[in-house]
């Protein structure tokens, strides 16, 4: 199978294809990554891969602290990820296509990227200033009855949004245009729902669109029922306006 090698940016969250990813880059290992990406011609794609962290820390500790105030501070590209970073990450991630990289006066970066396609992590290289990975592209197969499932998911998602709006005593934005292409629907709903990282990861690595939509339909019905029963549950600001893929 054809593979591609890209810089690797582990996060405590899941990036889905089509979704926008804003980043505040301040650690030296990721500053080095951005400086390297800036060397790429503007006519060429500037890309890196995002994987969710399974066991580790998104930001490396910069000073000794609890429980051991004398502990040595970790440094380098694998800081916070243990001796074998491949085991610290979920195996399915998403390629991010960089739209803008702006360097600040202090050397940090403001980055805006968009998820493009899924990839499977084959290996991780920690020999440079930042992690790179060998990645296998994962095709998105529609599966059976994806169109009908997408219609059902959109109906349930609207009910879910209404329940969230009621729980937060906010008005649901009207006139929101939601997509109808099954693959886009599956990723949009996965990103917008209030779910923990393992559940979002499960949705990302679903074998096909229809499987993802079936899982989402069950989740939407369950979460909507919970919100109806416990309307005081905290909610993200998902109902201020339409969720956009751009």
Automatic annotation (TrEMBL):
InterPro entries in alphabetical order: Lon_prtase_N (IPR003111), Lon_prtase_N_sf (IPR046336), PUA-like_sf (IPR015947)
Family annotation (SMART domains): LON
Pfam families reported for this sequence: LON_substr_bdg (PF02190)
PROSITE patterns hit by this protein: LON_N
Sequence ranges assigned to domain Lon N-terminal in this UniProt record: 6-224
Domain of life: Bacteria
Name this polypeptide is given: LON peptidase substrate-binding domain-containing protein
Species of provenance: Streptomyces coelicoflavus
Lineage, highest ranks first: Bacteria, Bacillati, Actinomycetota, Actinomycetes, Kitasatosporales
